[in-house]
Amino acid sequence: MAHWAEIDKDNKVIRVLVGDNNQPDEGEAFMNSLGGTWIKTSYNANIRGKFAAINDIYNKEKDVFEDPRPISESASRI
């Protein structure tokens, strides 16, 4: 199975879906037909650093998914 993460305009993961491995493109065409921006992710973390989870951030420069950025202590007091 191929897994795909949809990211929003801020590169935040908003959902993760499974593609069909019976298709030559592992479901990429189907994901693209849904609209949005889809990035392939690996359940075994073989690509892009880790398996994408909702609220993770996709770092385009490093081509990896990263944990959400922590809220700074001063910002959490506001």
Structural features, described:
The structure is a single chain. The chain is an alpha+beta fold and 78 residues long. It has one domain. Helix content is 13%, strand content 31%. The chain is built from two helices and five strands, in the order ββαβββα. It has helices at residues 28-33, 73-76, and strands spanning 2-7, 13-19, 37-41, 57-59, 64-66. The strands form two sheets. A three-stranded antiparallel β-sheet has the order 2-1-3. The protein has a two-stranded antiparallel sheet with strand order 4-5. The longest helix is centred in the middle third of the chain and has 6 residues, at 28-33. It is globular.
State the distance separating the first and last CA atoms.
Answer: 44 Å
Count of individual beta strands: 5
Outline, from the CA principal axes?
A: globular
Outline the biggest β-sheet. 3 strands, antiparallel
- Supply the helix-strand structural class: alpha+beta
Percent strand: 25-35%
Q: Helix fraction?
A: 10-25%
When the domains are counted, the total is 1
Give the count of helical stretches: 2
Q: Give the averaged pLDDT, no decimals.
A: 87
Low confidence ranges:
none
What is the string of SSEs from the N terminus onward?
EEHEEEH
Short précis:
By secondary structure, the chain is of the alpha+beta class. It contains 2 helices and 5 strands; from the N terminus they run E-E-H-E-E-E-H.
Please specify the SSE layout and strand pairing:
Layout: E1 2-7, E2 13-19, H1 28-33, E3 37-41, E4 57-59, E5 64-66, H2 73-76
Antiparallel strand pairs: 1-2, 1-3, 4-5
